[in-house]
């Protein structure tokens, strides 16, 4: 892979990852179980309504630095897209 940076440390291993698509739902503020579950449900409902086939349950990913106060942290619920059905593929 030509875009993979040069390895600078033996403690850090760089591995190419196969390209894939993800569906994402923003989740802000405190992320208690009820909000995480609601965001997961919304993401899965969106996938169904828009004919996306996703793999497994959505996972939560955080993108804020540790010093960012919890109410201001940015989170996303992510689901890996396996494929998107076209009009003729509906069961």
Molecular structure report:
With 91 residues, this protein is an alpha+beta fold. The chain has one domain (21-86). 19% of the residues lie in helices and 33% in strands. A 3-stranded antiparallel sheet has the order 1-3-2, with helices on one face. The termini are far apart. The model has no long low-confidence stretch (mean pLDDT 84).
Give the overall shape, derived from the CA principal axes.
flat
Radius of gyration: 17 Å
Proportion of residues in extended strands: 25-35%
Strand order of the largest sheet: 1-3-2
Question: Any key phrases for this structure?
Answer:
3-stranded antiparallel β-sheet, 3 strands, 1 helix, 91 residues, alpha+beta, flat
List the helices and strands and how they pair.
Elements: E1 21-28, H1 33-49, E2 52-62, E3 74-84
Antiparallel strand pairs: 1-3, 2-3
What is this structure, in a nutshell?
The protein has one helix at 33-49, and strands at 21-28, 52-62, 74-84.
């Amino acid at each position: 892979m030509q875009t993979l940076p040069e390895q600078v440390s033996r403690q850090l291993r760089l591995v190419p990852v196969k390209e894939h698509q993800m569906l994402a739902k923003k989740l802000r503020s405190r992320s208690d179980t009820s909000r995480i579950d609601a965001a997961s449900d919304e993401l899965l409902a969106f996938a169904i309504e828009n004919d996306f086939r996703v793999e497994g349950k959505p996972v939560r990913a955080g993108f804020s630095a540790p010093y960012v106060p919890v109410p201001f942290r940015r989170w996303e619920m992510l689901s890996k897209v396996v494929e998107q059905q076209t009009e003729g593929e509906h069961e």
